[in-house]
Amino acid sequence: MKFFADTADIDDIKELADTGLLDGVTTNPSLIKKSGRDFIEVTKEICAITDGPVSAEVVSTDHEGMMREAEVLRKIADNVAIKVPLTIDGLKTCKALTSDGTMVNVTLCFSANQALLAAKAGASFISPFVGRHDDVGYPGIELIGDIRLIYDNYDFPTEILVASVRNPIHIHDSAKLGADVMTAPPSVIKAMFNHPLTDKGLAAFIKDWEDTGQKIG
Ligand code: G3P
Question: Does residue 28 fall inside a structural domain?
């Protein structure tokens, strides 16, 4: 499973990159606003931190506008993936961009039918939003299972990029279902390390070692 950081915070991205766990980055207009940074500049900086895909989202809602913005965004770096919404214009843009080799991440996916359309449009990645489904009382993880089954039925190459990940359980359950990628805030990725028995066990090892009075080297 590939781990993408869902943020435009440069310090958080660098910290995660230092762990060796960073395979890519996703941003969206809300994350850019939260960063307080210039969209093009911060995307350029992110592309210099990781060689993996960096999703940069168009903000036009019509095909012509999306294509214009995609031209600007894909010039930033070779590892830019253009993010488009799951709309008719978004998938028209997806088809046009992927047909000339540009990576496309189709976002705001909330149904398996939408994911089927994105795969048929040649999407590089599909981003089903798990957390926002949970927010309205639908078990969002079931969407991941449905998409995995449908994609496997037809050998679609589109990678399932689980988004709107709010906790390590989302990651655990998505990995069990065979999702290709997950994107999460770095804090959620770091929370995967946490287990009280690991902390307790390490403290006991250190205490017992100190009692031996020995040193290594
Ligand atoms: O990549 C999409 C993600 O940023 C949405 O997350 O928590 O706003 O649903 P959230």
Answer: yes
**49 CB burial (10 A radius; 0-12, 13-18, 19+):** middle
CATH number at residue 154: 3.20.20.70
> Does the residue 31 lie in any domain?
yes
State the residue range of the domain holding 200: 2-212
What is the domain count for the chain? 1
- Write out pLDDT tens, residues 98-152: 999 999 999 999 999 999 999 999 999 999 999 999 999 999 999 999 999 999 9
User: Which of ligand 1's atoms lies nearest the C-alpha of 164?
Assistant: 6
**Contact between 93 and 67 (Cβ < 8 Å):** yes
pTM equals: 0.96
**How big is the CA angle at 131 (ends 176 and 91), to the nearest 5 degrees?**
90
Which atom in ligand 1 lies closest to the alpha carbon of residue 132?
9
Whether residue 123 is contained in a domain is answered as yes
Q: Let me know if residue 217 belongs to a domain.
A: no
Report CA(165)–ligand 1 centroid distance (Å).
7
In the numeric block, the tokens 């250190």 are attached to 206
